[in-house]
Amino acid sequence: xxxxxxxxxxxxxxxxxxxxxxxxxxxxxxxxxxxxxxxxxxxxxxxxxxxxxxxxxxxxxxxxxxxxxxxxxxxxxxxxxxxxxxxxxxxxxxxxxxxxxxxxxxxxxxxxxxxxxxxxxxxxxxxxxxxxxxxxxxxxxxxxxxxxxxxxxxxxxxxxxxxxxxxxxxxxxxxxxxxxxxxxxxxxxxxxxxxxxxxxxxxxxxxxxxxxxxxxxxxxxxxxxxxxxxxxxxxxxxxxxxxxxxxxxxxxxxxxxxxxxxxxxxxxxxxxxxxxxxxxxxxxx
Length: 285
Hints:
Number of strands: 9
Largest sheet: 9 strands, mixed
Radius of gyration: 20 Å
Order of helices and strands: EHEHEHEEHEEEHHEHHHH
CATH architecture of the largest domain: Alpha-Beta Complex
Keywords: Transferase
GO molecular function, one term: hexosyltransferase activity
Number of domains: 2
Oligomer: single chain
InterPro entries: Glyco_trans_2-like (IPR001173), Nucleotide-diphossugar_trans (IPR029044)
Distance between the termini: 58 Å
Domain Glycosyltransferase 2-like: 9-173
CATH topology of the largest domain: Spore Coat Polysaccharide Biosynthesis Protein SpsA, Chain A
Shape: globular
Protein name: Glycosyltransferase
CATH superfamily of the largest domain: Spore Coat Polysaccharide Biosynthesis Protein SpsA, Chain A
């Protein structure tokens, strides 16, 4: 692939993924996109991943890579952002992949349309099982400061970074990924981005996400840790909302807790708290 001007940087954070990293690199190669660079940030793999990356990198100049110990996935993502040359970036985990032609589609969009800075372009996402069969096609509801915090609802933000692309400059306003955040990088990112980013939605499948046993996302979800950690972020960020939004979202949260809690006494208490909040918000709006 002859390297031209870089408009798009694909960043792959990876650690001990020898079974997938070759397929990941091939997925970007198969796109045939000349305006893309593929940045691979390895965390010091010991299973053969580094050797595979090195072989490809000697053949294809669009591949740039580093391998060193890091503080986890968020740290690797930040390293990739810091060296990215493209005005737009996207993250491709080693076990996920883009649909055919997606990268050229993104290049077409950013070269023929003027998107305000910072913007996030969002497509649809295929969720795959162990046999690579599509078990769900996810779309994202319209993102805003209030709605993105509703962790109890589905599709409040994209489920995987293969289905969205965004201006690198966004990080100048919202900061980089939190180093101690190892599981909810996407959720945390969209909470912060919802304050200033412009969102554009496309009725096209862009990404493919393997939701399979043994992967971090699957196991985290199976244990119930994902909901618990999202709830913690909800309580942190709800306080930063304008007062009217705060009242409204707390009311909806209480309704969610009522429906999901089996204790009749607690449900009754939550109901009365929610009712008072609702009446108060109606009176003051």
